[in-house]
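We read letters as residues; the fold follows as C-alpha cells. A sample entry reads:
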Amino acid sequence: MSESRCWGVIPAAGSGSRMAAGLPKQYLEVAGKPLIRHALEALLQLPDIAGVCVAVQAGDHRARALASEPRARLIHGGATRADSVLAALGALAEQAAPQDWVLVHDAARPCLSQDDLQGLVERVRSTATGALLALPVVDTLKRVDARGRVQATVPRADLWRAQTPQMFRLGELKLALERALAAGVEVTDEASAMEWAGHPVQVVAGNPRNIKVTVPADLALARLYLTEAATA
C-alpha cells in the first residue's frame, strides 16, 4: 500500500474582532504579505503536501488572491472554527483517502518554521498517532473571579499551550468533529475533538515564535520574527 498523503486545512472564516482593524485579521499585512499568505506558504513548502484547503466566508473577495496557488483550494467555511474545518475536510474527502493525514493550521499564525513543521510530520508518521505542536506552560497560573480577584494558584506541571498545526487522520478527524458537534460539545481545536472521541493525541514541542496574531501588539512581534527568519 502506498504511503498516506498529507493535506493542509486553514480555517479562515472568522472576523478577528479583537484586532479592531476594520478587516478580518488574516488579511492584515506583515513583512510584505497578509498573515494568511504566510500561513499558506508555510504549509505549501512541505515537500509531501498534496494540497491545502482554505475555508473562507462566503463573499470574501480578498481570498481570491490565494487561489493563484495551484495547490490551494477555496471553500466556504462555517460559523465556527469547527464548522469551517469540517467543511474543508468534506471537500478534501472528494480527492483524499480517509487514512490520509491532515494538517490544520491557523490563518493568523504566520511564523511557522519548516523545521517545526517537518518535526511534527515526522513524529506523526513514525508513530502513526496524531499530534499537535505545543509549548509547556512556564508562567505561574492564577484562577480569577469575575471581579478580577485571585481565587487560586493553579499547578502548571503537565500543562501545555496548544499551537498549530494539528495533524490527524482525515477520516478520524472528520468523524470526531461530526459527532462532537452533534453532541453539543464545545470544540476549541481539533485535538479537543479527537480527545473527546477517545483517540490518543500527543504533543510535539513547538517554538515560542509560532505565535497567533490576536491583538495589535502581536503584529510587531510577528514582523520581527519574519524579518529575522528572512535574513537568517
